What does this fold into?
Amino acid sequence: MRKIIVLLLFVAVHVLNLSAQADIAMSTSWYNRSNYNPSSIARLNYIYLFSNLRNQWNGVPGAPKTINMQISGFNYEKSSAIGFSIVSDRIGFVESFNPMLSYAYRISNSEKWALSFGVSGGVFGRSLSSSGFNPEIAYDPVLIQNFEPLIKPDANVGVEFQSEHVIAGLSTTHMFSIYESEPYYLISNHRYGYVILKNTNSELYNFYAGVQLINRANLFVFETTGSIRFKHPTGLTTGPVELFELGFTYRTSKQLTIYGGVNLSRDMKVGYAFDQSFLPGFNNNGTHEIMLEYRIPLKSAQCPVCNVDDSWYR
It folds into this structure.
């Protein structure tokens, strides 16, 4: 518990001066889905620390810049997990900030399958400022409007099923905005559904393939992903060690992502993703994203499945 508290304080202190986007568009969200499905934090064996930094549409003025940091840990005796996340985002003149606490309950601790329910709650803050803009018309009335800062409660809910070869989940975000129209983007209700197929039986590689449907109002985005993680057999009871990963994601919003990751140790992984947009006007401006994932092993005599599977959680 002391380790969890220390890491929570670490995350909070290092991002107090940052701000957030409502539903962040992270290419590495397949590694960590807790931003839009809090039930996914119900993961055995480890305390997880996850962060990613995204610089979208490089070279475009006012393009999104996003920082996301998360931590979660599982209590086997309570069949529950708690987590904390904070997201900072800036898009043009819009700055936003979204700290959230998450809770997930895992119905089954079986090695064969598990069903988890999760909820997260926090606040969403947003401000708009045109002070950094150098307009052609100095006293354009559109630019001198005073926009009141927005601070409102926020909540997400979700459910996730996991078995040896399948992960499936449903979730919805920003519950307090379901019946509200949002003229400034950034705080609208989204719905997610996804299925991930995985094969981790080989000692040489792990293979993953997934599909996801995202809905906001009358907008639907479909994406598919595939990746392979290469492993090194050790001959030890802890099993093979993951070395590196290569993968891709394609979205019907005309965006292709190529990503890779390297395991610096059994408990630390870094990754990089590059997005290529095929939308007119943006096909010359790529998006860069960096990911860091760190885990702290939990050793508990009351956890019969802990430290059995050493492969990284998907």
Q: What stands out?
A: Residues 1-22, 304-314 have pLDDT under 50 and may be disordered. The chain is about 5% helix and 50% strand.
